[in-house]
Amino acid sequence: MSDPGKANDLLAQIPKSGKGLPPVHLWNPDFCGDIDMRIARDGTWFYLGTPIGRKPMVRLFSTIIRRDGDDYFLITPVEKVGITVDDAPFVAVLLEVQGEGESQVLRFTTNVEDAVEAGAEHPLRVSIDPATQEPAPYLHVRANLEALIHRNVFYQLVDLSVTREIDGERWMGVWSHGEFFRIGLEP
C-alpha cells in the first residue's frame, strides 16, 4: 500500500484511551498488506521514503507497533499493516543511574520517550556480530519489542561495568534492580 492517506487512516483508528499503551496484544484484525513505512537503525521513521518529522505522530505510531515472529506491524482494532524495521523499533538514547552496586537502577529513555528500567522484566542483552565482533546492545522495552542502545549510552554502561566470575569466566556487566547483565567478557 502506498496511499499517502494510509498513515492518517491508521492514526484515526487508534482508540483514545487516556493513559497507558493501546492493548495491541488483544487486537487481531485481518492483515491488510504492507505499508511503505520503515524504521531505520538510528530510530528515524520514514513514510513513503520521507522522514516523519512530527514527533507526536512518531510517538503515536510507536504505541501501536507489534512484533509477531520476525515481522513488525502497526495494529489497530480494525487493521494490521506490515512495516519494515531495519534493526529494532526503538533506540535507547538516554541513561539515568540511581544508586550503586547490586541496588543500582538503570533507567533508559527511548527516542519515542518511553522510560524503561532494566531488570528482570526488561533485560539487557548484547549480541556480537560474528564477522566484525562489534557488540550490539539491546533493552527489552515491551511485548517482544526491543530498543537498540545508542553507542554513547553503551559507553556509559561500559564505564559503569563491574567484573563478576560466572561459570569460570570473568564477565563485565552492570547491575539493575538486583539483576546482573553481562555486556562482555573481560579482556
Automatic annotation (TrEMBL):
Every DUF1285 domain range: 22-88, 89-183
Matches recorded under InterPro entries: DUF1285 (IPR010707), DUF1285_beta_roll_sf (IPR023361), DUF1285_C (IPR048342), DUF1285_N (IPR048341)
Pfam families registered for this protein in UniProt: DUF1285_C (PF21028), DUF1285_N (PF06938)
Domain of life: Bacteria
Name this polypeptide is given: Proteophosphoglycan
